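Re: weekly structure request thread

Next one in the queue (204 aa):
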Amino acid sequence: MEFEITADAPDAPDVAELIATHLAFSREASGPGNSFALETEALADPAVTFYSCRTGDDERLLLGVGALKTIDAATGEVKSMHTASAARGFGIGRALLAHLLDAAQQRGMARVNLETGTMDEFAPARALYHSVGFEDCPPFGDYTANEASVCMTIELEPPAAVPMITESDLTEVTEVNNDSDSDQPGESGESGESRSDHPGGTDG
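Done, posted below.
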């Protein structure tokens, strides 16, 4: 299944419907007072970046949602992870989670936290979080220790630094280009074609 993950509006009709499904599931599974899922209005807060996963075709069907909440400059929180029932089993949740962690890393965050339920209904979510490196941790923020929820955290590596291009680098590139201009045609191979000139020429 081809899909795309992009920033989206939590109040878009199909998104709002999936969020309502997520809220109903969370409240029913967690019990009274134990659900911390965000309403649509809270997901529109400037501190929250909301993402949707949609099919890559013209229909743009909604497959899942997730959000990254900024706690402070160095810390984020995963919120509102939910995959549409018809889209489960295709790796949508894992792809959304990877996207959220990448977004946090690119912002320079050093840590991402989350809270989820301890009930059997949340077992697949806990397994997913543990599989990518989240570890159980003490409650953070306004969360409190209770039997219905568990908090997790993961440390992020700093984003890879982009090497600076110096004047000497540009000079070397210019010299290489000048040298290649003086080469005779056909010296690089008999046909002068690359694999990409043919259908399926790349490795994938």
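DSSP finds five helices and seven strands in the chain. Residues 42 and 48 are 8 Å apart (CA to CA).
Next request, please.
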